[in-house]
Amino acid sequence: MNTRNGPETHSQRSIAVNATRGFGRRGGLSFPGLPEIAPSMKTLLRRLSVILALAASVTWLALGRNTGWTKTSVTTMKTDPVTTLEYPVTEKRFVPGVDLLGLCLAGAGVLAGLSLLRPRTPAARP
Predict the structure, then answer these.
(1) Tens-digit pLDDT profile for residues 55-114
(2) What is the pTM of this model?
(3) How far apart, in whole angstroms, are the C-alpha atoms of residue 44 and residue 36?
(4) Integer Cα distance of 18 and 13 in angstroms
(5) 96: phi > 0 → left, psi -120 to 50 → alpha, else beta; which?
(6) Within the chain, where are the H helices?
């Protein structure tokens, strides 16, 4: 019972009880004194798609902007100081290509597309 502002309503009591358990009115995470965290599935999918697209783009840019296929080893030519002959040296290094970037962006597109789907409404019963 709230003695300062009069009697509590049922919804105020259920919110207070649920807040002590850590779950708010809509089933999201809630803590006393902080706003409720309850993103819908659409919002969650859209956020995940943006995060995936940004992470893939930044990783591709940071690791070399390779416009070819993804490589797991890179061959470079070095010169022998005594004979001045060039010889190949293979170095194990991951270089993402546009195929990996495209795959990640396609995955982000699928997540964004899933967020546009509407849930099925139950059929009306006579």
Answers:
(1) 999 999 998 888 999 999 999 999 999 999 999 999 999 899 999 999 999 999 999 998
(2) 0.60
(3) 15
(4) 9
(5) beta
(6) 10-21, 41-62, 98-116
